[in-house]
């Protein structure tokens, strides 16, 4: 896949910016622009993302296939985009032009059927009278360049954002139309795959190749757009979900995608961290959706929820964007009432965010192979369980997608971490295994859980692993029920008396033959009957360790053979979390920690003066959203090795903080924390 083209270091888009998106409806072509700009400025935004074209052109296009918004006829100038750009420029507000090429009118579809998505049976995808297009076709591949040129020739816009930039396998109503079978896709897939059989649907053997083809097609297309507009020499922003100089991510509730599932309150921080860790030089926009879901666009989202999107985004280094539907004031805007606190804060501290960089000593690897398979979902649960354990105990960490491990190693960035955690990933491949081995050899620490780094045939991929080989199949389901792990000595287990911490083993467990140099700590207590109660005893300490560790070069590799993250996600037992952290904490070399309720999230960064700690109040987390929060009081930060002259300031509450030295650590007394706080630690 082609790498994302980057803006030059002197580009204005390499500096922090704050966005307000008005996702307009056709009827908004007649809106009064000046009041809208008043709202945008009050919100704290310096950039306006506004409709330009695609499904409906908000300017008088002359391109025959580009449908003019019919409401332009009711506007005195006949040109909404021209009026918007002129008025914004008068106020010094940048304008990003929003394009959506995913659908065309029936007339354009009739004239150019080769542009359209096609089902296996040759049928188009039609939604609300519009015909879905295919990124492989010439509308995306060539005619989009004409639209870009027409807008750039007429208006001094500052960049472009492409909405719904993907292959439309499903529509807004969640109807699955499947893989596109248009002539362009058939031809392109054959070339990309070396003539492999075209997959019928997601169950086909070639579906993984299809996904690779679509990802590559979109990345190459994004590069084409970026390079095409770069010749204008106007320092234009090009914003897409992948492959562009500025990466777009969205925070939304999307309840329809979560039936029967728990809301994951850390999704925004996780996704932004995955981007900023892997590609720190690429700017990112986090677009916070202020309505509940596309099926309830007039339903304002809970204000605390929208604010959480933005707080998590800026803490991890993204540029905040607030997204409302329609002209400001025409629909309810209660959802953004707290968001403006965050955007105003970001605007007031652009210098801080320009210098902000990750500073955690732990990096948590996120599993790949996106999909809905049971194996993938189990891996995500393992990852999230470890994520929660770190977050709740305020051990700063960054997130890295597994597919980006090798790139991070090539750039030398992985060496800034003391500990890499690889939770439940299964086989990782020889390239990633070699990178992790080299990280350990040079002095890093690696913790794996479940059967990470083990192939389907039981081979151990990493030379640093304490395991020699897998023995027997992976245990799951009832094979692990009523099995326990302990890190404490069990001297009286023969009398069925147990001491210290005994935690359940859930999900999977894998048995290994161990290398001669491997060191064992703790043990698993073998399975015993779980019913009836009269017979539910007999757990004997076995030969399997609770954790195995081996020195490799200058570092260590430790293994927890079972899915401790899934266990914590399933049972929510503090004891399980603490079992994990007893293994993890000594490997991580934690420099900054906190005494706070577990509903607070500590995200650690650095600027040119020292540490920057974002503290997020997540006491309002609900089953499917964030609600009103409870202020956090009496918290402390501890900074190990800080100089006596170190100074601490709370930026949100605008006050200097009381500090004292205890042993080798500086203790910072935190103020009461409402929605969030940002603590700057600097030396005088």
UniProtKB/TrEMBL annotation:
Pfam family, one: GHL6
GO BP term, pick one: carbohydrate metabolic process
Domain Beta-galactosidase trimerisation: 387-455
UniProt GO MF annotations: beta-galactosidase activity
Domain of life: Bacteria
Transmembrane segments: none
Protein's UniProt name: Beta-galactosidase trimerisation domain-containing protein
Species in which this protein is naturally found: Nocardia flavorosea
